[in-house]
Amino acid sequence: MIQVTAAILIRDDRILIAQRLPDDKLAGRWEFPGGKIKDNETARQCLVREMKEEFGIDVAVNEFFAENTHRYAAQTIRLLAYRVVWQGGDFVLNAHAAVRWVPLNRLGEFEFAPADKPFVQKLQTGAIPG
Known about the structure:
Blueprint: E1 2-11, E2 14-19, E3 30-31, E4 34-36, H1 43-55, E5 58-71, E6 76-88, E7 98-103, H2 117-124
Parallel strand pairs: 1-6
Antiparallel strand pairs: 1-2, 1-4, 2-3, 2-7, 5-6
């Protein structure tokens, strides 16, 4: 099982979502940004690293939000989501086709990666962290 993180980054009542690149697995799908946890790295350390690598921003990782285990055809992932706060830096797209700041009530308009869908549902039912 692969351990993966997801950032729940809300700013001005909008949440950050990112679109996967055309040549990625699940191309064009939307996700909460994050990535694979490396050996000897905590989930929180992973999120700080991934947000810097993928978007060029600095974040603080706050409380745990939720987790989901999802079986894809080739692998099973355990996705750990945390509330993240943007602390600085300007966005650059190093690993995604696009990003959007979306009101929570509009998340359903986007086609999310299957592992992220339970987080969309939780957010839409009013379970907004921090």
